[in-house]
TrEMBL record:
<keyword id="KW-1133">Transmembrane helix</keyword>
<feature type="transmembrane region" description="Helical">
    <location>
        <begin position="110"/>
        <end position="135"/>
    </location>
</feature>
<dbReference type="GO" id="GO:0004930">
    <property type="term" value="F:G protein-coupled receptor activity"/>
</dbReference>
<dbReference type="GO" id="GO:0007166">
    <property type="term" value="P:cell surface receptor signaling pathway"/>
</dbReference>
<dbReference type="Pfam" id="PF00002">
    <property type="entry name" value="7tm_2"/>
</dbReference>
<keyword id="KW-0472">Membrane</keyword>
<feature type="transmembrane region" description="Helical">
    <location>
        <begin position="20"/>
        <end position="41"/>
    </location>
</feature>
<feature type="domain" description="G-protein coupled receptors family 2 profile 2">
    <location>
        <begin position="1"/>
        <end position="153"/>
    </location>
</feature>
<dbReference type="InterPro" id="IPR017981">
    <property type="entry name" value="GPCR_2-like_7TM"/>
</dbReference>
<keyword id="KW-0812">Transmembrane</keyword>
<protein>
    <submittedName>
        <fullName>AGRG4 protein</fullName>
    </submittedName>
</protein>
<dbReference type="GO" id="GO:0007189">
    <property type="term" value="P:adenylate cyclase-activating G protein-coupled receptor signaling pathway"/>
</dbReference>
<dbReference type="GO" id="GO:0005886">
    <property type="term" value="C:plasma membrane"/>
</dbReference>
<dbReference type="InterPro" id="IPR000832">
    <property type="entry name" value="GPCR_2_secretin-like"/>
</dbReference>
<feature type="transmembrane region" description="Helical">
    <location>
        <begin position="61"/>
        <end position="83"/>
    </location>
</feature>
Amino acid sequence: MLNIVFLTNSWLTSFNQPGLCITVAMLLHYFLLAAFTWMCLESVHFYLALVKVFNVYVPKYILKCCIAGWGIPAIVITLVLIINKDFYGNGSLSKSHPYSNFCWIQDNTVFYISVVAYFFLIFLMNTAMFIIVLLQIHSVKTRTQKTSRFWKR
C-alpha cells in the first residue's frame, strides 16, 4: 500500500483538491510508519525465535502483533491530525517548496518528530535485537565447540 500511495501521489495531487491531498499525505505517512513498525516486530520475532527459544508462548501472538503493527502508526497519525490537519498538504502551495507536486507533511518539526525520530527508535530497537541475537548465536557456537573438544578427548 505504501508503494501504491507513493506512486499515485503526484497524479492525485494534480486534481488540486485539498481534502484529497490531506488524505493521500496521511495515508502515505501511515503506511510508511506501518512499514517501520512491522520491521520492528520482525526483529522482536527474530529475538523470540533465536534467543528465547523455549517456553515462549504468547497468547494471541498474531493478534497482538497486528494491533501493534497497525495501531501504533494509527495513533501517531491521529495525534498529528488532532494537533493540526494542515500539517499535511501539497508542497507546491508553500514558499519553501515552490516546485513540488507531492502531498506530504508540510511542517519540518512534525516530519522530524513523526518520521525521523520514529525511524530512529525503530532502528535502535532493531540494532539492539540484532546484537543480542548475534551474541546468542556466538555463545551457542562456543558451547558447541567446547562440548565437541571434551568428547574428542
